[in-house]
Amino acid sequence: MGKKGREVVEKAGVKVDELINMLKKAYADEWIAYYYYTLLAKLVKGLESPAIASKIEEIAKEELEHQGELADRIIQLGGEPPKRFEDLVKIANCPYVTIPENLGDLKAVVKAIIEAEGCAIQVYTNILNWLMSIKNDPVTFHIVRHILQEEVEHEDLFETILGE
Ligand SMILES: [Fe+2]
Ligand SMILES: [Fe+2]
Asked: Helices in the chain by DSSP H: which ranges?
């Protein structure tokens, strides 16, 4: 735990436990997105599937990075990421990604990813708004802003692929 790091945030008036809770829920979302994306990349079928699979793997790698960034910040603030894997699904804001029945239906796959990214964008926007309303934790703000930017890029990438 970053003792002084937490203390300055607390002294600035931030409800640190409330913040840690939000970060833990987002942390769970990242693992779940990583899991589903990695699986989807392996399951997709059809002529165009290698290209789609490599794009899904690309964003999955970033979700894994987000997980790590959130875990570091939770620990710095004196919290702990969940120790039981099953708790991730229980606390997540976005607990699943739809796996289309027909995995050759790449449009449905891309739409499922866009939907999942939309959920992530909403989560990080809510955390940023909360942080902006208290204005006192620039370190978490920077991390969440950076993650939000990448989620927006993910959504945009798959919207471009969808071409609608
Ligand atoms: Fe992410
Ligand atoms: Fe994402």
From this structure: 3-11, 16-43, 49-76, 85-91, 106-134, 138-162
Domains of the chain and CATH, by start: 3-162 (1.20.1260.10)
**37 C-alpha to center of ligand 1: Å?**
11
Rounded distance between C-alpha atoms, residue 163 and residue 61, angstroms: 23
The interaxial angle of helices 106-134 and 16-43, nearest 10 deg, is 170
Within 10 angstroms of residue 87's Cβ, the number of other Cβ atoms is 13
The predicted-structure confidence for 45-87, as pLDDT tens digits, reads as follows 999 999 999 999 999 999 999 999 999 999 999 999 999 999 9
Please report which confidence band the pLDDT of residue 1 belongs to, taking 50, 70 and 90 as the band edges: low
Confirm whether pTM is higher than 0.90: yes
Indicate which ligand has the atom closest to the C-alpha of 158. 2
Q: How far is the CA of 60 from the centre of ligand 1 (A)?
A: 8
The contacts of residue 55 (CB under 8 Å, 6+ apart) are 157, 158, 161
